């Protein structure tokens, strides 16, 4: 089985958001708070390098528990900020002139740019509603990934619509997640 990996750009973006939100000292706190095997990934990520998904999981846990003190709403806002920062200026401008349906159709492509391994996303459109089905991704047994998915999808749809979408977790298992997004 192919390993689940995440691209280094995620860590670079998270580092920039930590520094912007909490200050430079918080980066040191973050690095020291993750388990030793993942510290170098957090401290010195390379943009195009692929890292084990477990490094992201460790980073997310430390962000939520150590920097956000377990506060769900604060963690969600932080993840949204990471997503908006990661989207960048050009893609952000493109999102502003797109429809939610088009943007949500791109989620599988965005997934493949940031992750590799057997996990994937399926998209099903309805009228003013889209269901995203994340499959073959064994990290959904950790609720932090549900929070990450909701915040990331919410951020890209918000850039597009300039309003908060209604996102419902329709189903979650150890290796899958269904999000219903109403816009």
Number of domains: 1
User: Any low-confidence stretches, pLDDT <50, length ≥5?
Assistant: none
Number of helices: 8
CATH fold description = H-NOX domain
Supply Rg.
16 Å
Percent of residues in helices comes to 55-70%
Mean pLDDT comes to 94
Quick one: how many beta strands?
A: 7
Order of helices and strands: EHHHEHHHHEEEHEE
Task: Give the class from helix and strand content and strand pairing.
Answer: alpha+beta
What characterizes the major β-sheet? 4 strands, antiparallel
Key terms for this structure?
183 residues, alpha+beta, H-NOX domain, four-stranded antiparallel sheet, three-stranded antiparallel sheet, 8 helices, 19% strand, globular
SSE inventory with pairings:
Layout: E1 5-7, H1 8-22, H2 24-33, H3 39-43, E2 50-52, H4 53-67, H5 72-96, H6 100-105, H7 107-114, E3 115-116, E4 120-126, E5 129-135, H8 143-161, E6 166-172, E7 177-182
Antiparallel strand pairs: 1-2, 1-3, 4-5, 5-7, 6-7
Helix pairs in contact: 1-2, 1-5, 2-4, 5-8
